[in-house]
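fyi for ur records
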Amino acid sequence: MRVAACRQRGFTLIELLVVIVIIASLAGMATLSLNNTDSRNWTGEVQRLANLLQLVADRALIDKAHYGVVFEEQGYQVVRYDSSSMKWQEMDFSGQPAAANARRFTAHELPPTMRLEVLSQTELPGAESKNTSFGGTRRSTTDTDKDRSSKRKKDEKEILPQFAALSSGEVLPVEIGFFLMKNGDIGRAAIISYSSLYGMQLEWQSDEY
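which gave:
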């Protein structure tokens, strides 16, 4: 009877505490590993965008064309100025997926833990007027033309990049905030700026941003 009673003995308090400590340690290691992964991915995304801005500026000078980058909160895409339509258009590599930089120039979406914000930008020449330095002068529209095109304008949203690299080698200055979000707040931040005078600059903010 004494042997059977000993075999049915449960865990001691010390054994339970040891198990709890082990589980807590494993959970902490998993959380730390996840945070490190998010941080590494964020760093890689920041570097990708900084390199893309430089690549766009170089491409504009080589191709003798105007290129730009449109920023949204969760992504960005490269656009090119079409002198015939006098509009910025998305890059289309559907017919040439193997083209140089095709993968880099297609629209890119950020992970949900990251966010972009345009801190400052230079207004595009001609964006608020009929005259533009990108291809000539837009024709004046009559009231009838305006009526006919009113519905079309509602359905079409004109693309205006916040960063533009011109064929002359000049760039319109821009400053972008690239944030890593944690529990709805900014965990880490980097500031990417580009101008003709200083070129591309990348500033890493402290973790206590």
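Confidence is low (pLDDT under 50) at residues 129-145, 151-155. thats all i got for now
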